[in-house]
Amino acid sequence: MNLSLVIPVYNEQENLPFLFDAIYQAVSPLNLKWEAIFVNDGSRDQSLAGLTEQALRDPEHIRVVSFRRNFGQTAAIAAGIDHSRGEIIVLLDADMQNDPADIKMLLDKLDEGYDLVSGWRKNRKDNAVTRNFPSMVANSLISYVTGVKLHDYGCTLKAYRRDVLEGFRLYGEMHRFIPVYASSVGAKITEVAVNHHPRKFGKTKYGLERTVKVILDLFTVKFLVSYGSKPIYVFGGTGMLLIIASVLLLAYLIVRRIFFMVGILSSPFFQIGVMFFILGFQSVLMGLIAELLARTYHESQKKTIYIVHKRIGFPPENS
Questions:
Q1: Of 51, 143, 305, 317, whose CB has the highest number of CB atoms within 10 Å?
Q2: What is the rounded CA–CA span in Å between residue 48 and residue 13?
Q3: How would residue 179 be classed by pLDDT, with cut points 50, 70 and 90?
Q4: If pLDDT is split at 50, 70 and 90, which confidence band does 313 have?
Q5: Angle, helices 232-260/268-299, rounded to nearest 10 degrees
């Protein structure tokens, strides 16, 4: 399998017929062996019926993974990747705001030697206040904190070589941070401007509250990428700084007592110094515990973050 398209679907019954047509028009001329993995993320409309009908009509190309309930976009993407077989994986949304016609441009860019090509919705057709501005702030913050400079982390339309997607699991809203994980293993990343269309059917599933989730996940990603294998560095480093501050404060109090006859116990710096020492010691111990947890995490068996209800269109050994 040369190419796998991974497409999360949640209440997109009106868009699916147009999406099928656009995918066939975009991918069929490429002369590649391809598949499209549609992940029904607990849709409450007739999306699953439409996906099932298309999978039965074209079992060679269309695969459907259906969840029992809504697990979220990240879980749907993780499931699609897990069930895909292509050497190259392209992610895109089902709402027809991403343009499947851009897939060829992404693949051409991969052929230039890149491992990951990220779409950039340069002329984004969303609400400027509730979608575009928060996204711009989040993208700038993620680029600054992680060092991976991209204009549009939130654009689902991206192309990946399979090997850069291995070795990590996705949680929360972390699908947008895949470029950061890929960069941490040495992937060569670039960005290209892609088309973005206004939504014609249905309504967006995201609002301003998603920005808060993204920022919280950013803390996790930064920790996992920078300190995931050696958490003692962050906990132990913080602990050592607190202990050093404590020692300096207590030394100051002792010197002041010897030369100026000022009481130690009556000074608030004494309580602060003792508190810093205790917090520093606890932080070092937390670092050691985190090291044990990291070892357990890396050595334990993998566990998915989703539950598959049914699979349609897969070979018998995978169904």
A1: 51
A2: 8
A3: very high
A4: confident
A5: 160
